[in-house]
Amino acid sequence: MKKTNGFNLIELTIVLLILSLLLTKLLNPISAKIDYLRYQKTEKTLANIKQALLGFIAIHGRLPYPASNPETGLQDSNLRKKEAYLAWADLGVGRQDAWGNPFRYRVEDEYTEIPLYEKIFIKASNLRITDRKANYLTTKSGDSRVAAVIFSYGKNAIPDDDNANLNKTFVYDVYVENQFDDILTWLSRNTLVNYLPLP
User: How far is the C-alpha of 152 from the C-alpha of 184, rounded, in Å?
Assistant: First the structure.
């Protein structure tokens, strides 16, 4: 009887199974680390966008309109009272989050009009920020003092919770895998008052 020096089919299957289990154990932490780095990069880009909005208001005396086209990133005055894409070209900032999704933007209705300096002291903001349990992170009634909201749909590229409703309430919360991954920031009216040009 001949003796073979190689692996038989069962031994080879067992070796491949063990290798695949080891690779899975190694790749999961790497994937989580990549997602974490993308999350951090998106938060940094949102912080830069807030600074660009403050610069825009210092130059133009108002906030920009949303953009209708995420590719061109130019303001569209027809979207004055709607949520749409960030006017990234007019702001001179990045247009996408770390996953390649375009940023979304909603500005309080009259904050895109000139002279904003007079309106900002009498016009209450109705934009609201809550967490996933519907606890208000801004004032619930009266003036929320939120001038604009900028956000990313995150890794899953779809709006989570109330961020899908296109209303004036937005959800800001921690990342929960397969449940909530939107990354949101807002610009306070109290902050932008310091950047308004004097009348």
Answer: 6
Question: 154: closest CA among 125, 122, 128, 176?
Answer: 176
pLDDT band of 171, cuts 50, 70, 90: very high
Q: Which two tokens stand for residue 5?
A: 């020096």
**Tens of pLDDT, residues 14-63:** 888 888 877 777 667 777 788 889 999 999 999 999 999 999 999 998 99
Pairing between β-strand 128-130 and β-strand 84-85 as defined by DSSP bridges: unpaired
Q: What is the CA radius of gyration of the chain?
A: 24
**Could you tell me which of 121, 97, 98 has the C-alpha nearest to residue 110?**
121
Q: Are 64 and 75 contacting, i.e. CB atoms less than 8 angstroms apart? A: yes
Residues forming beta bridges with residue 169, ordered by sequence position:
128
Torsion of CA 38, 41, 45, 46, to 10 degrees: 70
